[in-house]
Amino acid sequence: xxxxxxxxxxxxxxxxxxxxxxxxxxxxxxxxxxxxxxxxxxxxxxxxxxxxxxxxxxxxxxxxxxxxxxxxxxxxxxxxxxxxxxxxxxxxxxxxxxxxxxxxxxxxxxxxxxxxxxxxxxxxxxxxxxxxxxxxxxxxxxxxxxxxxxxxxxxxxxxxxxxxxxxxxxxxxxxxxxxxxxxxxxxxxxxxxxxxxxxxxxxxxxxxxxxxxxxxxxxxxxxxxxxxxxxxxxxxxxxxxxxxxxxxxxxxxxxxxxxxxxxxxxxxxxxxxxxxxxxxxxxxxxxxxxxxxx
Amino acid sequence: xxxxxxxxxxxxxxxxxxxxxxxxxxxxxxxxxxxxxxxxxxxxxxxxxxxxxxxxxxxxxxxxxxxxxxxxxxxxxxxxxxxxxxxxxxxxxxxxxxxxxxxxxxxxxxxxxxxxxxxxxxxxxxxxxxxxxxxxxxxxxxxxxxxxxxxxxxxxxxxxxxxxxxxxxxxxxxxxxxxxxxxxxxxxxxxxxxxxxxxxxxxxxxxxxxxxxxxxxxxxxxxxxxxxxxxxxxxxxxxxxxxxxxxxxxxxx
Lengths: 294, 253
Ligand SMILES: Nc1ncnc2c1ncn2[C@@H]1O[C@H](COP(=O)(O)OP(=O)(O)OP(=O)(O)O)[C@@H](O)[C@H]1O
Ligand SMILES: [Mg+2]
Description:
heterodimer, A: MetI-like fold, 11 helices, 0% strand, B: alpha/beta, Rossmann fold, six-stranded mixed β-sheet, 36% helix, globular, binds adenosine-5'-triphosphate, transmembrane (chain A), phosphate transmembrane transporter activity (chain A), cell membrane (chain A), MetI-like_sf (chain A)
């Protein structure tokens, strides 16, 4: 077979494979949305869940998901930036750096159930944080940190050595070169990674079941003092998230409309994650254009 | 009358690990002159040039010995502020390396970081530097577009403008025109001739024509040694060493 025909054939095969993947993903998404969208209403999105009767919503779970996400990102974004910058710009090539890198790689491939059980043993029991937002946020940080650090490091490394040399040769200090030249160039990649990480955290269930807990006590949305028990901001209350709620309804739900609630909640979850992804792209492109004046 | 020496270097040796890339270079640079460093590939021109603003500090295996002074100050002295040194001794590389920002931001970068906020001062610096770099007329209407959207020759001149904005005393150039077409190259050569009145320029080049056209002095390197350094005319018309003559007439290298 000559090169030209082989090329044509392989191009065809690649198109077919890509098409197949798109069809699978699209039908999965379509199915979930098709099943769930009819159940979504303002009432469904804002009212509390019901354990035994029909007509429950996902209001509290939805709030919990966002609040946990916010806390987890507040902890993991600065840490991963620090660690990523250190690894990409300052770490020497020695065995210690290798150990750190390997540790990060292993951590990032750890199944989230394991992270959840670790969180249960350490944060819930040892530190006595109980089933709480705090335990959940720390477990999510454990789950998210390695991936974010990798992402920051990779984004920084993708900036060519020329740029660093140019900065240093201009009489910028090392730190100025990193903060004013390397990071701005890498920013779109860093932000995209952060937002994709947020999407992953938002949909995470296994790491939260034994840390943030499986109950969603009623909240008083008029009380924003974080020290009060019923305050939405209290970080020591248990907080079932949307993803955990879906898991729970499907495994032990006894509401008459369990299937409908689960379908609706799944659709909401998918839409939120989809929104994160689109936001990531949009923001990444925008920032890149802004920084580079392209 | 002998001109003031801006940079003096004495017995400069450089090791990359165990490999000695420079075997003891003695070379001085006079104020407001263009000195061309020539020699075959791998003879150590870039290595030597990068000793002069301590860019070799970035290479962990590189070790410099000898004495290099900028206006009498030992630049390898422990008290030397490297950042300050690189502000006085600017550098232009072979590949144009603008930052991925707007043309304007590229030029004012050094100033902004030095704390200059006054818009009028920055605008003024951009215009002066880009005019000196002979690129102002081509970019004055698109200062806020990305520097990456320019051609290679334009990028290189913006990069030179960026170096000039920091107001260095000496400019090191490592084959600044070798990635460019003949027209861009001659634009840069003319610009260098004009810049010579205010700056001391050290230029690595493989282009004999360029060296003979714009430099006042030429230094010929061979395998980590400085073979000879003399006024350019003398090097090209009447070199003292046989090796220099062979190289210039293209008999090797
Ligand atoms: N980072 C490095 N580590 C080890 N050896 C190096 C390094 N950089 C350069 N060398 C060696 O030092 C010698 C001089 O290299 P240098 O780059 O200074 O040559 P050059 O004269 O600039 O050549 P060219 O004209 O090709 O740019 C060469 O033998 C080269 O292999
Ligand atoms: Mg070189």
